[in-house]
Design a protein that fits this description.
Residues 1-18 have low confidence and may be disordered. The N and C termini lie far apart (61 Å). The strands form two sheets. Strands 1-2-3-5-7-10 form a six-stranded mixed β-sheet, with helices on both faces. The protein has a four-stranded mixed β-sheet with strand order 4-6-8-9. Strand 2, helix 1 (44-57) and strand 3 (65-70) form a beta-alpha-beta unit. 44% of the residues lie in helices and 16% in strands. By secondary structure, the protein is of the alpha/beta class. The longest helix is centred in the middle third of the chain and has 19 residues, at 87-105. It contains ten helices and ten strands. It folds into two domains: 5-208, 2-enoyl-CoA Hydratase, Chain A, domain 1 (Alpha-Beta Complex); 212-261. Helix 3 (121-128) crosses helix 4 (152-162). The protein has helices at 44-57, 87-105, 121-128, 152-162, 164-173, 179-185, 197-209, 213-224, 231-244, 250-261, and strands at 21-26, 29-34, 65-70, 74-76, 110-114, 117-119, 131-135, 139-141, 176-178, 190-192.
Length: 270
């Protein structure tokens, strides 16, 4: 019996002219939603759109959180299979690398929301965000080894997220992790019941909306800029951000005044 294309995560999009993501910003929250059902497979063209969205965020100074989510039963089933071959393999990796460069230089906190399976490139994309929430039925993994390939970005990032031994197990055996296991090893922030995922995300979004955009951005910059540094250098970096960038904002004075007056701060996002 032929497989229904709607059940095939690698089925092509119905309309080649349709954009593969939705990118919108409202009330301090930017959302990048993968909209290439059923599998949200990461083609080169789709990844270029994600990179363009991340680049555009550089100029949106009032953004307090960037949410990366997906429509359909998959967060993402990984790379387009045909892109692993020939000249497109180089383009595939360069484009995917560009997304990670964009996430790295972004001064806004990022949150991935995983309601379905996240495999291969989809798994490491979700894990690369600053925070990751997943429904209890979500699964993560890197099955690429079973097809004779591996994900270079996962090979570099996974040991930093979950440690060398667990990274070896995930990459070399190609198994899948439940959301609970992904939380336990540090691949995601938290697993929540499927029917509570939307409410949990909404609550987290509200907490960010109540914060100051520059304070959140600079705190994120202090952490991210020191991740690959030795502790003394990381401390100096964070101190530099604090003294030479944070203290120059109007919201610092407002925040401290509000604490002393025991009132809620009124942020100017400046």
């Amino acid at each position: 019996m032929a497989q229904d294309p709607q059940d095939d995560p690698y089925a092509p999009a119905h309309d080649a002219t349709t954009r593969f993501i939705r990118f919108e910003t409202s009330q301090g929250i930017s959302r990048i939603t993968l909209t290439r059902p059923p599998g949200n497979v990461l083609s080169i063209e789709m990844m270029e759109e994600i990179s363009a969205a991340l680049d555009a965020l550089e100029y949106q100074k009032d953004v307090k959180l960037v949410v990366l989510a997906a429509e359909g039963k998959y967060f993402s089933a990984g790379f387009e299979l045909g892109d692993h071959q020939g000249d497109r393999a180089y383009m595939m990796l360069e484009t995917f690398h560009g997304i990670f460069e964009g996430l790295g230089k972004l001064d806004k906190p990022t949150l991935s929301v995983v309601a379905g399976a996240a495999f291969g490139a989809g798994s490491i994309l979700a894990a690369a965000c600053d925070m990751a929430l997943a429904g209890a039925s979500a699964r993560f993994g890197h099955p690429e080894i079973k097809g004779g390939v591996f994900n270079p970005l996962a090979a570099a990032l996974l040991p930093r997220l979950v440690g060398r031994k667990k990274a070896m197990e995930i990459l070399l055996l190609g198994g899948a992790l439940s959301a609970a296991d992904a939380e336990r090893v540090g691949l995601i922030t938290r697993a929540v019941p499927d029917d509570k995922l939307e409410a949990e995300v909404a609550q987290l979004v509200q907490r960010f909306q109540e914060g100051s955009a520059p304070v959140l951005q600079l705190a994120r910059r202090a952490v991210a800029g020191g991740l690959d540094l030795l502790l003394p250098d990381a401390a100096r970096h964070a101190e530099d951000v604090y003294l030479n960038q944070l203290l120059g904002t109007e919201d610092v004075a407002e925040g401290l005044s509000a604490v002393m007056a025991k009132r809620k701060p009124v942020w100017k996002d400046r």
